[in-house]
Amino acid sequence: MTIHLLKLSVGSASIETMARWQARRLAESGYLFHRTRHGPRRVDEVLDGGSIYWVIQRYVQVRQRIIGIERTKDPDGKRCCHLILDPKLVRTRPQPRRPHQGWRYLSPEDAPPDIGPVIEGEDLPPPEMGAELRALGLI
Questions:
Q1: How many domains does the chain have?
Q2: pLDDT of 93-129, one tens digit each?
Q3: Which domain holds residue 68?
Q4: Collapsing DSSP states into helix, strand and coil, what is residue 26?
């Protein structure tokens, strides 16, 4: 059974700023990864189609497929885990989330639905406004 991860994108003001940061990392290292101190114990379930859902400015706004998990060491020699990510970002319906440390498991039933790929230069309303427009049935 598939399981997803939920993670705060610390320092990202928007999907676009996160995408630019990830593009730099991809250019520097040749592959896209997120370093975390502790890797998931449910590796098989995460690799069975799981994604990392990113919380940006208190809303889940985007996800990426997790295509690999690598146990490694950080630059200081401490054990860590690299979550290898598909560079393709997929927008999700904004879902409010409170801040938390680290990552959390996210069941497929609790994951927000996709609304489409991230298109560079696309101008969308802020998540709060989008949620309000959806509640009014306008989008």
A1: 1
A2: 999 999 888 899 999 999 999 987 765 655 666 666 6
A3: 4-135
A4: helix
